[in-house]
Amino acid sequence: MKTIRIIIADDHELFSNGLRELLKNYEDVEVVATVSDGKEFMDYIKSNKNIDVVLLDITMPNMDGFEVLKRIKDTAPLIKPVIISMHDEGNYIAKCAKNGAYGYLLKNTDQEELIKVLRIVMQGKKYFSPTISEKMIDYMSESTTSEAILSSKESEVLELISKGYTTKKIAQMLFVSTRTIETHRSNIIKKLKVKNTAELIKKAVKLKLI
């Protein structure tokens, strides 16, 4: 069985060291290095491309996991990125999958699941557990539905609200009455099932409507 050569990219030293020790239990896995951020990882693989898999955190200083996913496709396309993160939100999972992640694990994943994913990915296949896949599908379904139910005018008003314009200013910009804008705002809030403008902006960002 071919050895899976791994690099761990995570800014939490205790987690990286613990993961490295855990993987020593498997004869077909070798952790060749640990790095603390995305930039350090990208610098490392400039002269060390003999890596099969990178276990990649999302939230890191200097360069986060999202940026690494974008760059690794051109820099070292043979290295298979597997996300290992504390974030279980559907938008994080979908964004990583879209940008080329071969798998997505949560940091509380048990070691059997971890080694299973590594071995599957080593074969050039992608693997997302049923739970992770469900979260991603739910997010994508919600996003598509929300985009479909907003009219073009409501989308335009939403964009201006997100930029901090007042109702009066938006009305002036769109050459309509303030009452019309208030109606649009009310309809958007109802459709996105939020209670106020702050929640509206947060939901719109999550669904990539703005």
Describe the protein.
The structure is a single chain. By secondary structure, the chain is α/β, with parallel strands linked by helices. The chain has two domains: 4-136, Rossmann fold; 143-206, Winged helix-like DNA-binding domain superfamily/Winged helix DNA-binding domain (Arc Repressor Mutant, subunit A, Orthogonal Bundle). It has ten helices and five strands; from the N terminus they run βαβαβαβαβαααααα. A five-stranded parallel beta sheet has the order 2-1-3-4-5, sandwiched between helices. Helix 2 (38-47) runs parallel beside helix 3. The longest helix is centred in the middle third of the chain and has 20 residues, at 130-149. It starts with a strand and ends with a helix. The mean pLDDT is 91.
Describe this structure in a few short sentences:
The chain contains 10 helices and 5 strands. The protein has 210 residues and is α/β, with parallel strands linked by helices. The chain has 2 domains: 4-136, 3-Layer(aba) Sandwich (Rossmann fold), CATH 3.40.50.2300; 143-206, Arc Repressor Mutant, subunit A (Orthogonal Bundle), CATH 1.10.10.
